[in-house]
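Lecture 7 notes: from sequence to structure.
We start with the chain below.
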Amino acid sequence: MPTDTPVSNSGPWDAKLQQFHGGQEWAQLSNFVEDFSVTTNPFGMPSGAKVAAAHSIEHSHHYPPADQEPAKSSLARFLWPSEFETERDRLILGNGASELIDLVIRMAPTGTWRPGPFYTQYKEYERSARNNNFTLLPPGTNDKANVACLVNPCNPTGDYLELPELKAWISDNVLPGGYAIIDESMQPWHSEQFREHSLTSQREYVEKLYREQGISVFVMHSWTKLWCCTGLRLGSVVCPTAEHMRAIKKIQVPWSVNTVALAFLNAVVDDAEYLQDTWELTPAWRKATVDGLQTLFPDWEFHGREFLSWIWIDTKDVGVAERAVELARAAGVPVRSGGPGYNLPAFIRVAVRHPAKVDVLVGALKTL
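Predicted structure tokens for the same chain:
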């Protein structure tokens, strides 16, 4: 049973060793209602895939398949419905995107590392680069790097580059022979046509870039957000070639994706109704949340594309942001402070959630 255990600024994180992340406070709240601190799908874990995952426990006295099948082919079919048989050899699964981020950066050419063009982004890439002794270039630098990592759409800022802009950014920011790691974890929220807007659809471009300039493009996904399964740890990376995929496999620990996660993935890719609800209602619920908060706080600025599962909010005042975080936590609806990790303490990040849960959050913030 959750208790009202005091929560420190960094929660359970070791601030000297780990990168802060949302999603930890719910377990300490006896009055927990909803977690607004994470960017997961507001529809929760898909029921059919949850049943498949639960049933897989019966087989968990066996090792998971070393080739990650049939789940890997099922995900390939989801990404490339017509070409999955020729594309799946570039795909590998991991224990969340976090494992794959670290593996790709570990095998990247050493030297300099740079983030995307936005003033902040998901920090796990930076943490891995620092741990692997890269020289970190600041955001906004004009220097090309050996490894460039762009989160697109950008969490938390909500910025998004369409394919022409994305390709131009890669050309302008990656040295010949370097790595470009593009995180598209939140990109499937784009629309039912997300595939044609994704870098995963650009095999000819990726092959040409590698052939002519030696630049390797990796497309990273954390599937725990779209399908709301963060506790299962499930990610993938699409590599520029099958040889790159095998290089990752060589250094990846065996069975890093467990039986339950593989069963969940194999089932969830077929849940078309869940995705239709996601594409239809997320923008509507997001707009309603923005409208409601903007009415209460007309001086706040609300950032991010309309299809995203979160809202990045500049409250313009550090004290106001800190108080908002406190009030939300006290009401059982924790939000993400922009202070830890991002060093933007006047900002908060609020997830898109069911309107009834948003009412609880808005009610808590009315006393600001």
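Points to note: The chain has a mean pLDDT of 94. The first strand starts at residue 91 and ends at 94.
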